Amino acid sequence: MTLYLTQEEVKSVLDMGSTIEAVESGFREMGLGHIEMPPRVYLHFEKYNGVLIAMPAYIHGIDAAGLKVVTVHPGNPKNHGLPAVIARIILNDPSKGEPLAIMDGT
Predict the structure, then answer these.
(1) Residue 61, pLDDT above cutoff 90
(2) Is the pLDDT of residue 92 over 90?
(3) 31: exposed, middle or buried (C-beta count within 10 Å: 0-12, 13-18, 19+)?
(4) Could you confirm whether 96 is annotated as catalytic?
(5) Which of 25, 48, 59, 104 holds its CA 20 to 30 A away from the CA of 16?
(6) Which entry of 11, 68, 78, 96 is annotated as an active-site residue?
(7) 3-state SS string over the chain?
């Protein structure tokens, strides 16, 4: 069963200290070659002055894989009442390919 987490739910379980520790750990693991992270993929929507960015990664040590999808549309706040940046993260179980969680990544 896939867990869905809203922005409010994600914020409720994060604090700055543990977030900084996780980012530091991620950079350390990347430096050790334990993370597979291909270059970002960009889709440009010139007609709409927007972009979609796909960022996949696999952390071997904790056997976690995921994809962050970010859209950037600077005109959203004025034209549509939406944030300029919208993001989602899909966390997958690498052994089965099953999505474990879909969460706000903004």
Answers:
(1) no
(2) yes
(3) exposed
(4) no
(5) 59
(6) 68
(7) CCEEECHHHHHHHCCHHHHHHHHHHHHHHHHCCCEECCCCEEEEEHHHCEEEEEEEEEECCCCEEEEEEEEECCCHHHHHCCCCEEEEEEEECCCCCCEEEEEECC
Work out the number of other CB atoms within 10 angstroms of the CB of residue 103.
Answer: 20
Torsion of CA 38, 64, 52, 88, to 10 degrees: -170
Report the predicted TM-score, pTM, of the whole model to 2 decimal places: 0.88
Sorted by where each begins, the domain ranges of the chain are 3-104
Query: Could you tell me the two tokens for 70?
Result: 């970010």
Strands 99-104 and 3-5: parallel
Fold of 3-104: ornithine cyclodeaminase, domain 1 (3.30.1780)
